[in-house]
Design goal:
This protein is of the alpha/beta class. It is 38% helix and 18% strand. It has twelve helices and twelve strands. It is globular, with a radius of gyration of 20 Å.
Length: 330
Amino acid sequence: MSSQHLPRIALTPGEPAGIGPDLCLKLAQQDLPYQLVAIASAELLRQRALELNLAVKMTEFNPGDQVTPHTAGSLSVLNVDLMTPVICGKTNRLNSPYVLKTLSTATQGCIDGLFDAMVTGPVDKGIINDAGFAFSGHTEFIAEITGGHPVMMLATPGLRVALATTHLPLKDISAAITPECLNSVISILEQDLRTRFNIAKPKILVCGLNPHAGENGHLGTEEIEIISPVINNFKQQGFDIIGPLPADTLFTPKYLETADAVLAMYHDQGLPVLKYQGFGNAVNITLGLPIIRTSVDHGTALDLAGTGNANMGSLLFALKTALTMTSQSF
């Protein structure tokens, strides 16, 4: 990032009845080395600030204004109207269009160059689907707008885990692990580790799909027929890639201390380990897109909304990661 460029980061608080608005308002109490723009209902934020007894001076975001660092006690807001009033801790499917509108607005703003990155708060996928919208997650929703092949990666200090497949039922995962899928995911992971994280030659460890990485075909043949041939092809191209390795032993210091990232085959193969190590201090990153998007690693925490007890650790790490990725673009 050049000394002349000051980043402008969009923040979507997510589910309005959850802790996302609380985190946004608590963040606004700090001086920040970038411009922060909350894409949310200004009325929701005012009401939540009253409930939290936080003094926040809100101003309407004007794209033409000069980009200046965020000042503690203020908040620039790009307003999106709620569909119905919000009660802390009580989701309402009527507000699902509002949630999706905040995401599409932030995404389009990144595409148009209005924002350098977007950071997303937690949403309730079930409520959005109950409202009649097919929504499997931020990752897929944003990719529908931007194009590209989204690769979900979570990171915490000392560990990065990317996923070959994201939000799929277990019964559908084997069929989704194709040579085309793995070629695309590995290419994106390697490229973004270089270009977004400034790692000259990333070392990537790849999990097998089956127990014991298939046990030489006795516990499944995906490793022999699909995963190993793809890995060998990348090795021939000079990639530093190892696998397929049994997932139950891959996540040990012997392997991880020299690795830059792990590629897991499915959501619950790699993420439980990462969240055990770094929950509350981890970030969800969408690779493979023409924009920068990071997110918190936790859910809506409805029981904490409006209490003032929401932990900011993951949001701060998500913002720090977005800032790091942005710095590689200038």
